[in-house]
Design goal:
Elements lengths: L1 H9 L4 H8 L3 H8 L8 H10 L4 E7 L5 E7 L2
Antiparallel strand pairs: 1-2
Helix pairs in contact: 2-3
Length: about 80
């Protein structure tokens, strides 16, 4: 979600423009900008990154409690 927001800001996209590029609704872009991404699957968020033209690296690991953590790093 943070990488998506960084790309949108860096490219100067309005929420409407970002929605057009990703196929999401403007309200979805607003939710992502506000940090509310829990309703979106990891696959959906990765697809948004692809549609925005991002090159990313994914790191999958477990925290000490055994919870899965997926880190997304943009390759620039």
């Amino acid at each position: 979600m943070n990488v998506i927001n960084d790309i949108i800001k860096r490219n100067g996209y309005s929420q409407r423009e970002a929605a057009e590029k990703t196929g999401l609704d403007q309200s979805d872009i607003s939710r992502l900008a506000g940090g509310r991404a829990s309703r979106y699957s990891t696959d959906k968020l990765l697809n948004v990154l692809i549609l925005l033209g991002a090159d990313v690296e994914l790191v999958q690991r477990h925290d000490p409690a055994g919870h899965l953590i997926i880190e997304v790093h943009e390759l620039v």
